[in-house]
Structures are given as C-alpha cells and as structure tokens.
Amino acid sequence: MSFDAGDEMDPHSYDNVDIAIIKPHFGVAENGAAWITEDQLGHRVILFITQHLVAIVCATDQVANMNDAYDRIAGLDFGWVAFIAGPSKPPISNSPRF
Question: Could you give the 3-state DSSP secondary structure of residue 98?
Fold first, then answer.
C-alpha cells in the first residue's frame, strides 16, 4: 500500500503499513529526536502503528540540543506536535568486560 501524507484516509486503513517515511521540520543531535507537526502527516497514528519509521533530516535542519530546539519553536503555533525519537540503545564500548 502506498499513500501520500495529504491523502484523507480512515486511520484504521493504516493497520498494514510496514514502513513510513517522514521529513521532520528538524532533528536534535543530542538525542536523535525529530520535531514533527500534524501538517506533515495524513494522520498522526502513522507514527505509532507502522512497523518501521524512517525520518529523513538534512544536516542543515539539525540543532545541537533540546535547549536549541525549544528556542527554535518558541512562539510558533501548531495543533498537534511531537518530538519523536527511537528506542534507546546502549553505546558500543571497547572497554573490557568483567
């Protein structure tokens, strides 16, 4: 199934989506979060029901940390918004294991 974010669809029709590709307004380097607003989605359920979520963020569309992110969105007026981030994974360490 393929669809465009601008398509008006019943949220129940997304139940078999394997992969969703989104382009957030910007990303946060500190924690890998992405700032997304409802105008970028057909329905916000897609962020949570898909098996795999791919966020494409240009290097020029990144801020260093959450303080910079909140400065960037200060005073903006949106309906539904979210900072989304993937699962936390432990860093790869070269330290000896005991």
Answer: coil
Q: Count of CB atoms within 10 A of residue 24's CB?
A: 20
26-28/33-37 β-pairing? antiparallel
Read off the pLDDT of residues 62-74 as tens digits, 9 standing for 90 and up.
999 999 999 999 9
Q: What is the pLDDT of residues 8-63, one digit of tens each?
A: 667 666 677 788 888 999 999 989 999 999 888 777 888 888 888 888 999 999 99
Cα→Cα distances 64→24, 36, 79, 85, 86, Å: 15, 17, 25, 15, 17
Read off φ and ψ for residue 72, nearest 5 degrees. Answer: -70, -35
How is residue 3 written in tokens? 């669809």
End-to-end Cα distance, the chain: 49
